[in-house]
Design brief:
alpha/beta, Udp-n-acetylmuramoylalanyl-d-glutamate--2,6- Diaminopimelate Ligase, Chain: A, domain 1, ten-stranded parallel sheet, 16% helix, flat
């Protein structure tokens, strides 16, 4: 598809500085700009590329001060990153296939209820009493269990497995090979050293506008529900254990593990490879930096935590700075002992 710079500026409410009639047909990173592409500048460390980029147009901040005239036509906006995101979303919507219908071979139980304008890919199985909302797209090789409910305008990518009784809200995206509703890790140790399996009788509830990454697993509750709040985003390779509750608009990066019955508040940001202990709570607006371990309840909202066990990030950084000095301090002590 081809658009003029003026058309794109109108879409993102920007102001054109240059030739609004230039034609845009592609996207590019600013350092890899090429003729016919559009890019953006949001991070100041990439400013050097602004002036020599071969992109036809670049989206920049309306407050950006230029050191010299760029080669590209500029579109000035309030928030370049957000504007570029909106542009990508609009392009994705235009490029998305509008194909509907049931592809064969696939299995749909006669008791399942399917909304209007849905798509079901090949080798997908939809079991009894499942309910699929209008406009939802289910790709190939998806397994939808008994009594599963999926809302409207969802996107379910190949290989997803939805265990029985799972509930998915509206406008959700579940990426390839995610497993939703598998048994929680419930085993009772016995006097003879063996384990007895604790039946996992609950389900998983995912609210509206949630995104679940590829190969992520979310376990069903022992009783009640494991819950993912409205608007939350979960990256690839994340493990959410049984009876966990994730608040609204919380983002969890890749390789995070959240242990059972933990509650994470609204608007939290959890960095990659964070481990969270079970049966604790994390207050709203908490940021946990990558590779940290949260071992106890976080009561005060709005903190940034780091390290293991996680503590206020300023304290964690101070400890790290001191630890890096230990070899020098050790050497000084040895030298002092030798002199004496």
């Amino acid at each position: 598809m081809k658009f003029t710079v003026d058309q794109i500026a109108g879409l993102i409410q920007g102001t054109v500085d240059g030739n609004g009639a230039d034609i845009i047909s592609d996207f590019s990173k600013i350092e890899e700009g090429k003729s016919g592409s559009i890019s953006f500048l949001a991070n100041p460390k990439y400013e050097a590329f602004l002036y020599d980029s071969k992109a036809t147009a670049i989206i920049i901040s309306q407050d950006q001060t230029l050191k010299k005239k760029p080669l590209a036509t500029l579109i000035r906006v309030a928030d370049p990153y957000l504007s570029f995101t909106i542009l990508l979303q609009k392009y994705q919507e235009m490029m998305a296939s509008n194909e509907t219908g049931i592809q064969q071979p696939s299995f749909i139980d006669p008791s399942a209820i399917l909304g209007e304008n849905i798509y079901v890919g090949t080798f997908t199985s939809i079991n009894r009493n499942a309910k699929i909302g209008s406009g939802t797209r289910i790709m190939n090789n998806v397994s939808i269990g008994v009594n599963v409910k999926i809302g409207e305008n969802c996107m379910i990518y190949p290989g997803v497995i939805l265990y029985p009784d799972t509930v998915i809200g509206n406008h959700c995206t579940i990426h390839a090979n995610a497993v939703i509703g598998s048994d929680g890790f419930g085993f009772a140790p016995q006097p003879d050293g063996t384990f007895t399996t604790i039946p996992q009788l609950g389900n998983v509830i995912i609210e509206d506008h949630v995104s679940i990454g590829a190969n992520t697993t979310i376990d069903r509750a022992t009783m009640g529900s494991t819950k993912i709040g409205k608007g939350s985003k979960i990256d690839n390779l994340v493990q959410i254990a049984h009876n966990v509750e994730v608040g609204q608009n919380t983002a969890i990066a890749a390789q995070v593990g959240v242990s059972g019955s933990t509650k994470i508040g609204d608007h939290c940001l959890i960095g990659g490879q964070v481990g969270v202990a079970g049966h604790i709570s994390i207050a709203p607006n908490t940021i946990v930096t990558a590779q940290s371990g949260v071992t106890k309840t976080v009561k005060n909202p709005g903190q940034t935590l780091g390290g293991t066990p996680a503590s206020p990030n300023v304290d964690y950084l101070k400890r790290n700075a001191l630890i890096r000095q230990l070899p020098d301090l050790f050497e000084k002590i040895n030298q002092t002992i030798k002199v004496e």
